Amino acid sequence: MDKAPDAFRTISEVAEELDIPQHVLRFWETRFAQIKPMKRSGGRRYYRPDDVDLLKGIRRLLYGEGYTIRGVQRILKEHGIKSVQGLADQTSAVTFGAVEEAIGLSLQEPDEGEIPTVAADDEDFETEEKEIDYRFADTDDDGILLPFARAKPGPSDADRERLERVLQDLIACKQLLDNALKDG
Q1: Is the dihedral of CA 92, 98, 99, 100 positive or negative?
Q2: Which residue numbers delimit the HTH merR-type domain (predicted)?
């Protein structure tokens, strides 16, 4: 039996609807203060429809658009909850105008507990700028990057064959280098 659109949802129902594990929803509660499900005795969570829309928007930004947690936090801070809830509809475009630059900067900032990368000749120990190229990334039917989609049990047979060929090529290259160093 389907619930009414305005009915509260349990964590298992929301996790199933968003196709993510329950522990991820609990983790997001620790990273996004805006996620506030109602809790009953025993700690059982109940999500309002607005909570579910917010979670859908966060999921889309993290998995579909490639933003970091810090980037999504900035979007929430700069544009508010409603803008992220509006992303729950898969057809709406992701445009945040003026904060795109700030979000780009957030990709350079390390998250809590993360160690920044440092250029060898950099005396100020600033983080290196790293650009992620998504042009060749595969997405599923929902536009979510495949590395973030449900994991498959293991590599396909074709992937195994390719990996085996690459490994053999690398071993042959190593032998050539070893021989060249001995002769040189």
Answers
A1: positive
A2: 10-78
